[in-house]
Structure formats: structure tokens, C-alpha cells
Amino acid sequence: MNAQKHKLKRAERRRYRVRKIIYGTPAKPRLSVNRSNLHISAQLIDDLNGVTLAAATSQGKASGLKHGGNVKAAAEVGKKLAEAAKAKGITVASFDRGAFRFHGRIAALAVAATEAGLVCTDLESMKAKLAPKAASEAPADKKADKPKDAKPKGEGKPKGEFAMKKKSEGDKK
Predict the structure, then answer these.
(1) Where do the segments described as Disordered lie (predicted)?
(2) Quick one: which of 22, 48, 127, 140 has the most CB atoms within 10 Å?
């Protein structure tokens, strides 16, 4: 099987794995996200009736976006979708990331939608994940963090000698 077919098969398996636990109802529709290299789109789907309740995309002149394939565009699409959902009286949705990882544009869309009033992610847990990361990036001088007695890289016995020494010790016993 060639590489592209294998990649599509893996993506399909991920999509099915995510979808088997998420189901959209009229009260809590499924927020489905589709991402391409140039654009991002999202829609609220009622799986019970097979109906799309609201949708937003970065494609077309109506979107008002110059580039649709970046985090800023994804956040804008999330805000537009939340506004459309509010107009229909929807405040909660279950997030369906599809075959995509929850980071970058996908996460930006979910966070923007949640901040705009359509609850689909837990913002507190996301902020907790990002807080330790920001704290660990605080020291700018890497040399100040190292202990003074630490050996520079590349010094010491090569691995080959150590392995041979262990082998000869085993033969003696």
C-alpha cells in the first residue's frame, strides 16, 4: 500500500474512533470541524434528525478573511459559529475534532467558540495545561540553569568500551 493510501486509512480510523463516542442531539449538537491547508469550516449537527443547525467557514468573500488557513481565521470562524448558535438558542455542543489533533487551528476554533458563548471545551483545564508550560519557558539564559560541575557533552567513555567491559566481567563469573 502506498504512503498516501496508508495515511488516509489511519485518518479514517481516527475519525471513526472519535465519532463512536460523540453523538449530536437537538439540545447538545455535535460541533464538527473540517480543516484543509487553505480553509477551516465548522458546523453544528443534530445526528438524531440528520440536520445541520448552524455553520461557519473561512471560505468565500462573506467570511471577510484574507487567509483562511491560520489560527486567526480559525478563531474568527469559532466566534461566527457561536453567534449563529446563540441565534438558534444553542449554548452547549460536543466537540468532534474528526481525524485532527486538538492543537493549533482546531484548538483555536474550540476556544474562540467557548469564549463567545458556545460551550464545547473546558477552558479552565486548557489554561491549567498552558500555565506550567509558560512558567517553564521563563528562564531565558540556558547556561545559568546548568550546574557548574556538569561535564560538557561528548566527554566520557564511548559506549562500545563500556559494553565490552560488562561482557568480560560476565565471563569471569
Answers:
(1) 130-173
(2) 22
The answer to whether 41 touches 105, Cβ cutoff 8 Å, is no
pTM of the model: 0.70
User: Cβ distance 111 to 121 under 8 Å?
Assistant: yes
48 grid coordinates? 438524531
Per-residue pLDDT tens over the stretch 3-55: 999 999 999 998 888 888 888 888 999 999 999 999 999 999 999 999 999 99
Return d(Cα 131, Cα 64) in angstroms, integer. 33
Query: What cell numbers appear for 93 in the block?
Result: 455542543
CA atoms within 13 A on the CB side of 99: 12
At position 67, the amino acid (one-letter code) is H
Q: Is 163 exposed, middle or buried (0-12, 13-18, 19+ CB in 10 A)?
A: exposed
Distance between CA 76 and CA 156 in Å, rounded?
54
In 3D space, the residue among 24, 56, 19 whose CA is nearest the CA of residue 40 turns out to be 56
